[in-house]
Design goal:
By secondary structure, the protein is an alpha+beta fold. It has one domain. It is 36% helix and 13% strand. It has helices at residues 2-8, 14-65, 99-105, and strands at residues 116-122, 149-156, 165-170, 177-179. It starts with a helix and ends with a strand. 25% of the residues are buried.
Length: 183
Amino acid sequence: MSRRTNFGRRGFTLVELMVVVVLVGVLATLGVVMFRQWVFNTRSVEAFGMVQSVRVAQERWRSENGTYLNVSTDMTSWYPTATPGKRLYAWDYPAGNDYARWRLLSPTVSGPVQFGYVTMAGAPFSALPAVATAQQPGWPAANTITVPWYVIQAMGDTDADGVKSYYVAASFNGEILRENEGE
C-alpha cells in the first residue's frame, strides 16, 4: 500500500519539464521581438509630431506674412544635424543647417530630437523639390499649383543599421508619406 502512495506523488518527468522550458523560451523570444518592434515604432512618433508642428508653424507664418517660409537650402540640409542617427540632438543647435531660418519658423519642440528635418516653400507655379525617398509622392504638376506651397521631410536611422526612415508631407494634403517606418 505504501508503494501505491509513493507512485501517486511522483514529480514531473524530464520530457514535461523540457516542454515547459521550450514554451517559455518561445514566448520570451516573441515578447522580445514584439517589444523591439514597439520601441522602433514609437520612435516614429517624434517624426509625426514634428511634421505636424512644422505644418502648424508654416501656416502661422503664412497667416502673418502671406506666404510660407523657405527654411532649408535644399531637401538634404537636415536640421538640427546633418547626419541624423541614434543620438538625440537639441533643437536649437546653432551649428545646424539653416539655423537662423528654423528660429524664424519656430516650430513647437518638446525636447531633443533624433530625426533630421527640412522644409522648403515656393510660390504658385514653381517647381516642387525632389524628396529623398525611393517612393516619390504623387504631387500635382508645378503648372497646376495656383497657391503657395511647402514640403516637409523628416529622416532618421533610429537603430543605426543603415536603413533610413523617411516621412514626407506637403501643404497639398494632410497625408504623411512613410518609408521604412520604425527603422
